[in-house]
Amino acid sequence: MVSKGTRYLYQTTWGANVPPNFQGQDTQVQLGQRLRFARAGWIVGARYFRNTGDGFEHLAFLRVIPGFQIVRSATFLHKPATVPAGDDGWQHAYFRPRLRVEVGGEVVLCVYTTGGIFYFESAGCAQQRTFGDIVLPASGENGLSNGVYAYSSMQPPASTFNANRYGIDVLFLVGE
Length: 176
Known about the structure:
176 residues; mainly beta; Jelly Rolls; globular
């Protein structure tokens, strides 16, 4: 899937689609998706699908495999304290500097929310899926889960439920 940025066409996993299910809970949560890349390029940023009423703080993290250390972080832009009705949609955060990935490189893209409101696709990581040059490995492949979460901002997300695919996304730019 391709998303139009300011000057570039980014590859994403959701495109313009809306994640089908909504979950709201009264706790902070960090959501994670494991990603592998079929071509070399740059991870430029992250996307998070927010809904009306979600005025909570959101942060994006990139964690490398192995080790799950945070190598990039960013705050989502244009997050008012209250979200007007009908103003739901994809929010963006940009990593500075962007992260170079090689063919076969893997990362875990994480989004932390202080409010615990998020969208998901049930069992969306149960099987490997490919979106252009971005691969979502199946949960359990090589002993690693996909569609992971943690009730902490800093702890690497390792828990999984139903191999859910969350309403978080990568902005990937192919090239040297």
